[in-house]
Amino acid sequence: MTNIVIDTNVLLSSIYSNKGASYKLLSIIDSPKFTVHLSTTLLYEYEEILKLKSEMEEKYIDAILNYICSIGKQNRIFYLWRPKLKDVDDDFLLELAVKSHSIIVTLNGKDFKPASEFGREVMTPKEFLQYIGEIS
User: Fold this and answer.
1) How many CB atoms lie within 10 A of CB 94?
2) What pLDDT is attached to residue 128?
3) Can you spell out the DSSP letters for the chain?
4) Can you tell me the distance from the alpha carbon of 109 to that of 98, in angstroms, rounded to the nearest whole number?
5) How far apart (Å, rounded) are the C-alpha atoms in residues 104 and 3?
6) What is the distance between the alpha carbons of residues 38 and 6, in angstroms, rounded to a whole number?
7) What are phi and psi of 4, to 5 degrees?
8) CA dihedral in degrees (16, 19, 21, 24; nearest 10)?
9) Class of 2-131 in CATH
10) Whose CA, among 26, 45, 60, 86, lies 20 to 30 Å from 12?
11) Residue 58's CB: how many other CB atoms inside 10 A?
C-alpha cells in the first residue's frame, strides 16, 4: 500500500477543474491502491484555503472535507524540527510525510526539494497516477 500526503494546491486545483490529474486523483481518493494521510493542521489548511479561494458553497466544501476525513488516516505530528523548507508554511506537510512514510503529492515540487533528505518522494498528481497505474 502506498501512503500519500496531498498538498492543498492539489485539492484546490481539483475543485477548479474536472479535467486534470488533480481531479482524477481526488475522484479515486478512496482507492485501495493508496492511503491518504492527514493531520489536524493539514485539515485546517484545506478548510481555510478552500473557503477563501474557491467559489464553492461552504456546505459542499464541508462535505468534501468530511469525506476525506472518513477515508484518510489521521496522524499526530509534533513539530520536532523546523524550518526546513523555503516556505515555512509547508514544513508541517513535510513533517506529516516523514511521520507517515508518504509520498508528497503537490503541484509545487520545487518547494519540497529537501524532502529527499528524509527519504520522501515528491510527485505531481499526474506522476502519482502514473506510478499507481491509473494513467499511462
Assistant:
1) 25
2) 98
3) -EEEEE-HHHHHHHHH-SSSHHHHHHHTTT-TTEEEEE-HHHHHHHHHHHHHH--S-HHHHHHHHHHHHHHSEE------S---SSSGGGHHHHHHHHHHT-EEE-S-GGGGGGGGGGT--EE-HHHHHHHTTS--
4) 16
5) 9
6) 8
7) -135, 155
8) 90
9) alpha beta
10) 86
11) 11
pLDDT digits (tens, 9 = 90+) for 82-125: 666 666 678 889 999 999 999 999 999 988 888 898 999 999 99
Q: Identify whether 32 is preceded by a cis peptide bond (ω within 30 of 0).
A: no
Phi and psi at 3, nearest 5°, equal -100, 140
Map out the domains of the chain as residue ranges. 2-131
CA–CA separation, 109 vs 122, rounded Å? 6
The answer to pTM > 0.85 is yes
Instruction: Supply 131's cell numbers.
Output: 506510478
CB 13 within 8 A of CB 107: yes
Q: ∠ at Cα 109 (130, 32), nearest 5°?
A: 35
